[in-house]
Structures are given as C-alpha cells and as structure tokens.
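User: Need the bound-state model for zinc ion:
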Amino acid sequence: MTPEQKATYMRRCFQLARLGEGRVAPNPLVGCVIATDDGILSEGYHRQFGGAHAEVNALNALTPAGRSQLGDATVFVNLEPCSHYGKTPPCADRLIAEGVRRVVVCNTDPNPQVSGRGLRKLRDAGVQVEEGLLTSEGWELNRRFFTYHELKRPYITLKWAETADGYLDADDPKPIRISSDLTKALVHKLRATEQAILVGTRTLLKDNPSLHTRRYYGAPLTRLAIDRNGRAPLSSHLLDGSQPTFLFNSRRDDAPWVRLDFDGDVIQQLLQFLYDHRIQSLIVEGGAETLRRFIVRGLYDAVQVETGVYACGKGTQAPDVPLGTALRTACYDGHRMVSFRKMKQ
Ligand code: AOF
Ligand code: ZN
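Assistant: Bound-state model below.
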C-alpha cells in the first residue's frame, strides 16, 4: 500500500471519528477503516459514550466477503486499540481473534489503562503494527482528550465578546448586549462542543447568565461559577436546576455548592475538581478578572473573540493576549469571530 493510500485511509478515520462529536466525551473521537490496496472493506466509529469502540463497529460491519479478505487487509484506526476491560472488552484482543495481520495507528492512547499496552499486545501476537501516521492531525482532533491526560487538566478555551472599540462592558450597572441573535447561536454551538463553562463572580451577579446551549444540540454543559461569599441569589438562572452546575465558594459544600480554600490557589483547585470529575474541556467566558487569572498563568489553549459592531467609549477593557495560530475567522451580521490557538512557548 502506498504512503498516499495510507494517509487517505487515516484521514477517512478522522472524518468518521468526528461523527461522534458531542456524544462520546470523555472518551476520544475514534474512527476505523478496514482496507486493502483495492479499497475499503468496512468502516466504523465510536458513536457514543459507553458504546462499542470504532474497531468493533468496523469489524461488525464487514460483509462475509469482506471478512474472508481480512487476513490481507490493513486496519486503520486513529487511536491505539485499547487493551483494557472498560465498558467494553479490549479491541486489541478482538483484532487478534479476528485474524487481523496489519494495523496502522495514528496516536497512542495516553489513558493510563492503555498507554502502549494495546500496541504491545498486537505485536506480541504477531500483528504488524505501524504507528505515528499523521499524529499532529490526530492530536488536533482529540485535543481535549490528550490535554486532559497529558496535562491533567481540561482543554481551556477563553471566550469573550468585545465592543468595536475593545470593551467587555460599559461602566453602567446594566450589562451591554454585544452579540447578535446569529452570533449567539454560534456561541451556543461552541458551548455544545465543550464540557464545562465558567464565569466569575461579577459576571454571575451582574449578568445573571443562564449559560444554556438552547440554540444548538448536544449533551448538557456543566455550568460553573466562582462565588466566594455565596452571593448568588436563589433566583439566579444558574440555580434553575436545568443543567449540572457547581458554584465554587468558601462556605458551603452541599450541591451545587463546592467549597474551595480561597486563601490558596483557587484556579488550581478548580482545575483539579474538573479533572476529578472527568471534565476534559472548559470555556472561560469571563469576566475580565476571571479571564486575567487564566491568562497570567498561561492556563489556556485557545481563544475565541467576537467583536461587535457598536462602540461604547469607556468601560472594562477586553483582555490582551498574545496572538497565536489562527484557527478560524468569520463575519456574521458584521460581527468578527476570530479564534486562535495559544502561541507555543
Ligand atoms: C479504542 N477504540 O473507539 C475508543 C477507545 O469505557 P470504555 O470501554 O469505552 O473505554 C474508554 C477508553 O478506551 C478511553 O478512555 C480510551 O482510552 C479508549 N478509547 N479505544 O480502542 C475506540 N473510543
Ligand atoms: Zn477499544
């Protein structure tokens, strides 16, 4: 099989994997293609959390004719086949039992229950294994999963909307409206692809945000707020019981309140809490002080900024972050939407 053919099949795995977006977290997005030099015999992907893994779905999708060619075929999968009994039996065992002779893998699995054991199992059984094909594309696809396991914290996106002249908010007691109906829907889309969203005390009290994803489909997002002195009124939207919610404070520890040591490092404790709750991605939606606390420590991976069409003249300035690698730029209703990856240090 030519290197071009192999790359094409691996990219097809990425496409398949993406079909699981919004449904498989905290599991990774995984796609699998079983192919020969002449073409694809079958395909599969991890469809939902707790369900069959990509390799199993691809093997189950083989026709009898396809199955008879399995000994001559190559199994492409963007993540190392697992070696552990999780919610499903090990994929490596199934591949071996089916008589697969060649496997091409993109990324190894950083999950401590796997981490190389899947590949070893295959090799020990005489399967020819090639690893490391298109690793950076695969890393990008599963950036939340890899960041979580490698850095022991969620993948962090800083997100804010600023006025045309660079303010998050005017000095008025009432919050200003920056997003349009259309860009709100896009913000809901971003929220729907991440697992948790955080706001600070001032935003919680001033904006009374609901942090919903009503305008987009997806699993319910976990809502988080920092409320050191427990000042959120019981009528707060965040206390409407509609989605999983945690309020970090210094006093109470009964759900949805979570007590933290505010004399210590609050951000670190909060990230540890998310790690312990297997939350792999976080949007920090403001306000200025909360964003600043993440920025000064370089504790973020991506930034998404919406620039609205109206100026407000004075108020709280939007944060200043070093521009990294541009991911997407778009314009809706005259609103500029820019997202970029943090500059590599
Ligand atoms: C694979 N193929 O398609 C996926 C894998 O609880 P379980 O059984 O679903 O196992 C989840 C773990 O398995 C997950 O954390 C990751 O390490 C691996 N995911 N492995 O061989 C797949 N989704
Ligand atoms: Zn598996």
